[in-house]
Write a structure and sequence with these properties.
The protein has 151 residues and is of the alpha+beta class. 46% of the residues lie in helices and 17% in strands. The protein is built from 6 helices and 4 strands, in the order ααβββαααβα.
Length: 151
């Protein structure tokens, strides 16, 4: 990050250790505010802005598919990765989570993200079919194709 800083006054003083110290300072300030607030992390972030509650959640979307008259809608599963500068949720296809959280180090984060999907699949045969086939991770699935598979 220090090597990628744009040209600006004082850029020559930005080093890896300066960045590490800044990060540690922000981390300590955050921890102090969290302790002072006496809230869970989720409640604390939500108190800063309600949209933070959306980060790390899976969303099921029915998207318009204008190019196919026989299947005018497509199913898309996404997850919220972050908030934009305007506090709007930024979504990625759920399949990207497999890449982002790959490796043993991130296994718990992936399981945490997917646990609500698994619970929902227990009560929805349609969703269970998607999950069992791994189709939940593909970008789009035609709704009529999914209905046909469900029987």
């Amino acid at each position: 990050m220090a090597a990628a800083v744009p040209p600006m006054t004082g850029a020559e003083y930005l080093t890896t250790s300066v960045l590490a110290n800044l990060w540690q300072g922000m981390d300590a300030a955050f921890d102090a505010e969290l302790v002072q607030a006496k809230l869970s992390l989720q409640e604390f972030l939500k108190s800063r802005h309600p949209a933070w509650n959306l980060v790390g959640r899976v969303h099921f979307n029915l998207a318009e598919n204008r190019k196919d008259d026989e299947a005018p809608f497509a199913f898309l599963a996404t997850y919220t990765t972050r908030l934009s500068a305007e506090a709007k949720a930024q979504h990625l296809p759920l399949g990207k989570a497999l890449q982002e959280y790959s490796g043993a180090r991130n296994r718990q984060r992936l399981l945490s993200l997917l646990m609500p999907v698994q619970r929902a699949a227990e009560s929805s045969p349609w969703l269970k079919t998607l999950v069992n086939a791994g189709d939940i991770f593909h970008r789009y699935r035609q709704v009529n194709e999914l209905e046909r598979r469900r029987g």
